[in-house]
Write a structure and sequence with these properties.
The chain is about 40% helix and about 20% strand. It has about 750 residues and is an alpha/beta fold. The protein has a 7-stranded parallel β-sheet with strand order 8-9-7-10-11-6-12, sandwiched between helices. A 6-stranded parallel β-sheet has the order 13-25-24-16-23-22, sandwiched between helices. It has a 5-stranded antiparallel β-sheet with strand order 2-1-4-3-5. The two termini are about 55 Å apart.
């Protein structure tokens, strides 16, 4: 008698349960295992799901259980570690496991055959690149050898100098013979560079052994190893230019030499372009890259390499790399852990890459190091509580001191006619001197486009997006664009209300680029923001050109503050810095402090001392004064004390519930009803006004209360971080799900845990 096999399946859908299916007798002899991919029918559609359990006892009648359509043997099996991570993410971020599965395994638009063909092409190109690098290395050794031999011929017989030269030549000849043998073997396919981690500078392990750390780095490295020995996450607080990357590389080499794998997370794609070249010098073909900037075929190839790898590898990627089929992870590196780019806002799961990396490290029992020059308050708090270990690295690698800081009061400059457009004459003089000395300049403006706002000179009306409650931005193309929903229209120059003339207000990166080119006609000026970054080749070319010194002035948005390392950059300046502080967000001061400190650290990264200029109409603001005094530690303590007073994170767990509706009155009404239910559950009288420290705030209209024709109302929930936290979070989820069901209001409510 055949016993029917019942399985539970995770589908890429927002379901609060895992549907049960039966396996038809004879289908693969009934051999279905956890992690297998199966095709099933749910409703009117077919989906590819993942088997989460086998041999289960169904809680519904057998006649209501559908059989699976097929076992997808051509699709890779999902690892148990992957499913474990999905469950943790779903539980923490109050979403369904199906939504996590959909994020981890999105529908592929390219066939397996096309992907593999593209992967083979990439492998051939990388092989050719490595062979060329090996040939160039041999040429460099031969050139050095000729020079040494010439020095020997001119040196006096029997002197110490000649003996030392002869000894050096002998070593160099041996190195040359080894390099030539490796090249011949690689050409013959006997020791193909794709598999052994060989690159232009030798094997990965040899490079790791030759990596020289400074005394301060060695001390930090020892403290990190001691932290790992205690099985605790380590926070590396290293000032900009202190050489955190060298420590990461040393730790990664150690993990790989033990047969373990490494995951290296970065917040932005732009940062990977510079870092990838650096890591490839050390790890060769052991380096894998994963982010949305590479093709679908390239991402699929990386996933296959990780899944099938039996040797140590290092994966460099953005937050999406967390969902790769990792196994045997020995080390996770989260660089620039404070960066808000690690947080996904939409769609679900609305996860933070840093915190998810901590979950992954527990599942993989791997070491994890988080690094930043400006640690987040959450990490500072974790270290103070003893959950994580803080390691300090306060010396710059090349010994250069902090940059000089100058704050320029733009109000005072305008009164005495000291401004030319958006540049003060003081800043212009600093830029001219820097360029004359052969240095480079970076200018930060936190608004893209040509002008962020257009206003009617007759009636004062602002040109606004018809679908969002935000102003349209004027671009050089002549188009007015909404930076929220993407709405675009041609600029007629006339007010839609009274037909009066529209006047551009403020300046975005495009205008700053124009003014820079006009003020410094002999300088090469370029721009880097989210508009230009859409062209990946332009972005890569711009970063490389600036690194080579081919660009004199680089204008851009916050993308410039990421962890770039440019040796000739000696002046950085912020135009209209006050826009960084005008946010209605309890994290505004923390974000501004981190951004300014990060940007300050971009200059003077070698022996030269750099300069940091801030143009502001609020020169007395405490954030600027702390930056100028170099006393950000005091600011961090002050911000933490302020958060504690108001029961804000990291002293509480914050959830933001957003009601979205195309009708404003219904959004207001439904948000009010939901808030009353939540207040009742968490001990507040319905309709009560929330005071500082209260668990429920709202509903309230956010600063931008309409996006893509959807009106928004928010409710903020602060839960104590105690033994009832998990229960409280689940209660919020249950109340919202029941509210949606009772009011037939599905797909209108979004829960965001730990909003950025």
């Amino acid at each position: 008698m055949y016993d029917t096999l019942y399985i539970s399946v995770i589908l890429p859908l927002k379901l609060e349960w895992e549907p049960c299916y039966s396996v038809p007798h004879g289908m693969s002899s009934g051999k279905v295992e956890t992690g297998d991919r199966v095709k099933v029918r749910f409703g009117a559609k077919e989906y590819v799901g993942t088997v989460s359990a086998t041999g289960i006892t169904p809680d519904i009648a057998p006649e209501r259980i559908h059989p699976i359509s097929s076992i997808e043997n051509d699709l890779e099996k999902v690892l148990p570690e992957e499913i474990a991570l999905w469950r943790k993410i779903a539980e923490y971020y109050l979403c369904s496991i199906g939504e996590v599965y959909k994020a981890a395994y999105p529908a592929m638009k390219i066939t397996l055959e096309e992907a593999r063909a593209a992967a083979l092409k990439t492998a051939r190109e990388r092989r050719e690149k490595i062979l060329r690098s090996m040939e160039e290395r041999i040429a460099r050794i031969e050139d050095r050898l000729r020079k040494k031999e010439e020095q020997i011929r001119t040196a006096r017989e029997g002197t110490k100098k000649k003996l030392a030269l002869e000894e050096g030549v002998a070593k160099m000849r041996k190195e040359l013979d080894t390099a030539k043998a490796a090249l011949e073997a690689a050409r013959a396919g006997k020791a193909a560079p794709e598999g052994d981690g060989y690159d232009m500078n030798g094997s990965a392990n040899e490079q790791g052994a030759r990596l020289t750390l400074s005394q301060a780095q060695e001390k930090a490295y020892s403290e990190i190893k001691a932290g790992f020995a205690k099985a605790k996450p380590v926070m590396l607080h290293g000032v900009t230019g202190s050489g955190k990357t060298e420590i990461y590389i040393r730790l990664a080499h150690e993990a790989i030499s033990k047969g373990k794998n490494v995951l290296y997370l970065i917040p932005e794609i732009a940062l990977s372009r510079q870092l990838e070249d650096r890591l490839e010098e050390h790890f060769g073909e052991k380096l894998l890259v994963f982010h949305s900037g590479i093709t679908a075929a390239g991402r699929r190839n990386t996933a296959e390499c990780i899944r099938n790898s039996r040797d140590g590898y290092i994966t460099l990627g953005t937050r999406s790399a967390l969902f790769l089929p990792h196994h045997d992870l020995g080390l996770i590196i989260v660089d620039e852990e404070h960066d808000t780019s690690y947080k996904q806002d939409s769609p679900a799961p609305r996860y933070n890459g840093r915190d998810t990396a901590l979950m992954l490290s527990l599942i993989q029992t791997s070491n994890i190091i988080l690094g930043s020059a400006t640690p987040s308050l959450e990490e500072t708090y974790n270290c103070e509580c003893g959950k994580h270990i803080m390691v300090q690295l306060k010396e710059r690698y090349h010994g250069s001191g902090n940059a000089d800081v100058e704050i320029i009061d733009t109000k005072a400059e305008r009164r005495k006619k000291g401004m030319e457009g958006n540049f003060s004459r003081k800043l212009i003089e600093h830029i001219r001197k820097t360029l004359a000395d052969g240095g480079q300049v970076m200018i930060l403006r936190s608004r893209r486009a040509w002008a962020p706002v257009l206003q009617c000179e007759e009636c004062g009306e602002l040109a606004k997006c018809p679908h969002c409650s935000v102003s349209l931005s004027l671009h050089k193309s002549g188009d007015l664009i909404c930076h929220y929903c993407g709405y675009r229209t041609c600029n007629t120059g006339k007010c839609s209300r009274c037909n009066g003339p529209l006047k551009p207000l403020g300046a975005g990166t495009q205008k700053i680029e124009e003014e820079s080119a006009a003020l410094f006609p002999d300088a090469k000026v370029a721009r880097l923001d989210s508009d230009t970054a859409q062209n990946k080749s332009y972005e890569t070319k711009t970063i490389k050109s600036f690194a080579k010194g081919e660009i004199d002035i680089l204008v851009g948005t916050q993308i410039l503050t990421k962890g770039f390392d440019f040796s000739r950059l000696s002046l950085v300046a912020v135009i209209a810095a006050d826009t960084l502080l005008g946010l209605q967000d309890f994290r505004a001061d923390e974000k501004a402090l981190q951004l300014l400190e990060q940007f300050k650290g971009r200059c003077g990264r070698r022996e030269n001392r750099g300069m940091f200029v801030i143009q502001t109409s609020q020169p007395e603001h405490p954030i600027y004064q702390r930056i100028m005094a170099g006393d950000t530690e005091c600011d961090i303590s002050h911000l933490l004390a302020e958060r504690k007073t108001f029961n804000f994170p990291p002293y509480s767990r914050m959830l933001e519930v957003t009601v979205r509706d195309r009708f404003e009155d219904r959004a207001e009404r439904m948000a009010g009803k939901l808030a009353d239910l939540l207040k009742k559950r968490f001990g507040m009288h319905p309709g009560a006004i929330a005071m500082p420290g209260s668990p429920i705030t709202g509903p309230y209209a956010p600063t931008v209360d309409r996006v893509s024709d959807q009106f928004l109302r928010c409710i903020r929930i602060s839960l104590r971080k105690d033994r009832h936290l998990k229960e409280g979070k689940q209660a919020v989820k249950d109340i919202i799900r029941q509210f949606e069901k009772d009011g037939k209001y599905e797909d209108h409510i979004v829960i965001d845990v730990d909003p950025a």
